[in-house]
Amino acid sequence: MTDFKKLSINTENNSFKYSILIGNNFIKTLKNNFSQILKGKKIYVIYDEFFYKLKLHKDLIENFNKLSKKLESEIFFFKIKSKDKFKNYEKLLILLNFILSKRINRDSIIISIGGGVTGDIVGFASSIVLRGVKYIHVPTTLLSQVDSSVGGKTGINTKYGKNLVGTFYQPEGVVIDTSFLKTLPKRELLAGFSEVIKYSFVSDKKFFNYLDKNYQNIKKLKSPYIENIIFKSCQIKAKIVSMDVKEAGIRALLNFGHTFAHAFENLANYDSKKLIHGEAVAIGMACAFKLSILMNLCPKKEAEKCLALISKFSLPTKLKDIKDMKFTPNELLSRFYLDKKVKNGKITLILSNGIGSASIKNNVDERSLKKFFNEIINE
User: Fold this and answer.
1) If you count Cβ atoms within 10 Å of the first and of the last residue's Cβ in the chain, which end, N or C, has fewer?
2) 188 is catalytic
3) Is 335 a catalytic residue?
4) Is 237 in the active site?
């Protein structure tokens, strides 16, 4: 694949518009598509520590230095830790102090290059430093390419829960380079498929069938399958985000499985050895389907097909799949009340109506939830 596929996010009231570019040469794409806003500016490249681990940082820095010379720009580099437990106030403050120490201006550009943790914290920093500085996302993991880099959500975690402090702040653009996927550890790659699968569960039955038919080629990153699923995932999210920027309604459907997932992650203390986000989402979606069956919302046969698809992508579906963790119904319930979707003291869940359809439910009572928690803990 040599040419970039292009998508646009444009709200109904035209409050913002930007492009999502999907291909395999992000430096060239930055030069060809963003030279106008990069030329002559201070550029802050905040990159994921995995570049160091894979000894790719020298090439990264060299390529950006060449780009900055062509654009007559001044460039600064900052390495950031990429695990969820580091997405906190302390690391945010360190990043902000670095940016401010290099005398950032309001016309400067911040470039986030890394996975979802990097994108979330850099996006948040960009939204608050000098009350808002332009930034560009270059997501490097599958999960961040199809989910966290699209839609403008930024944030950090606290001891009370995940992403509870943050902003809605849209980037100038998103540049997706599929060649990064070949550098990912197998566990990280597989975890990214959970968000891809999610889009088919909540929005598109045809996409579900495509994933079910081609999952082996997709897992092997074969072209054009991998490009097609990234494009389709971004297309679905772009459409929903354009209609509901700040998650006042339909966008909440994209949180399918996430109320469960965030509770699991919090109880695991964001320990990546036990659980990473995509794995938590996979188990969370499985739980959401099981609860949907109990509430007579989703036909059992359709839910079973969805659970089978999760397994086909080598993802976990049960709480017992989380290493060295034990849960209690009371612990899970307390974490559910920390969810951002709680309104008027009521827990809100996204549940399935069948393949390609989901709905928002806030009428699940505590007693029923605790009984259900007991079932999934002991299955």
Assistant:
1) C
2) no
3) no
4) yes
Specify whether the CB–CB gap between 197 and 211 falls below 8 A.
Answer: yes
Spatial CA neighbour of 155 closest among 128, 175, 178 = 128
Burial of 359 per CB tally in 10 Å (0-12, 13-18, 19+): middle
User: What's the mean per-residue pLDDT of the chain?
Assistant: 94
Q: Is 279 a catalytic residue?
A: no
User: Beta strand pairing status for 109-114 and 42-48?
Assistant: parallel
Catalytic residue among 24, 33, 157, 255: 255
12 is catalytic: no
Model confidence at 343, in pLDDT bands (50, 70, 90)? confident
Give domain 5-184's CATH architecture.
3-Layer(aba) Sandwich (3.40)
Catalytic entry in 162, 251, 290, 340: 251
Amino acid at 165: V
The mean pLDDT value for 282-297 works out to 97
Asked if 265 contacts 275 with a C-beta cutoff of 8 angstroms, the reply is yes
CA distance 331 to 370: 10
CA–CA separation, 68 and 71 (whole Å): 5
Classify residue 315 by its DSSP letter: -
Q: Which residues pair with 17 in a beta bridge?
A: 10
* Amino acid at position 5, single letter: K
Q: Which of 277, 290, 335, 340 is catalytic?
A: 277
Dihedral (CA of 151, 155, 158, 160) sign: negative
- Which residue spans of the chain are classified as CATH 1.20.1090.10? 187-378
